[in-house]
Amino acid sequence: MIFTPKSLLRHPRAVSQVAELTGGGFHEVLGDAIEPEGVTRQLWCSGKLYYDLLAAREEQKAAHVAIHRLE
After folding, report:
1. What is the Cα–Cα distance from 57 to 32, expressed in whole angstroms?
2. Tell me: the pLDDT tens digits for 4-32?
3. What would the pLDDT profile of 38-68 be if each residue is shown by its tens digit?
């Protein structure tokens, strides 16, 4: 059973490749892929809030903000 907002069911960024589902394991913390040298602020969140923050970071061109996910 999955409890998630309906908007994430078809969100273009909330997808996984088959290889990610069949190999490896579950990751409780997903770090951001930006260069750590320029980071001045870190945000920790989960669920739909991550995609909202990611869109806001891109819109504002805030490359100094790292967004980490707790799953």
Report:
1. 12
2. 677 777 888 887 788 877 887 788 888 88
3. 899 999 998 889 999 999 999 999 999 999 9
Lateral strand order in the sheet of 41-45: 29-30, 65-70, 41-45
Distance (Å, rounded) from C-alpha 33 to C-alpha 65? 11
CATH architecture label of 6-70 = 3-Layer(aba) Sandwich (3.40)
Task: From 69, 57, 65, select the one nearest 14 (Cα to Cα).
Answer: 69
C-alpha distances in Å from residue 24, one per residue of 19, 32, 39? 9, 19, 28
Q: What is the pLDDT of residues 29-40, one digit of tens each?
A: 888 888 889 899
